[in-house]
Amino acid sequence: MKHRKQILVLSVLAALALVSFFPAGGAWAQGAVFGTHLQDTKFTVAPFTNDGSVITELTVLNTGESGSDLCANIYLFTPVGQMTACCACPVKQNGLLELSIADLAKNPVTGVVPTKGVIKVVGAAYCYPAYVNVAPGLRSWQPNTHGVPTISAVPLPPIPVPDTPLGDDERLTLMRQCQNILTNGAGLGICSCPAQ
Question: For the domain that residue 71 is a member of, what is the CATH number?
Answer without folding.
Answer: 2.60.40.4070
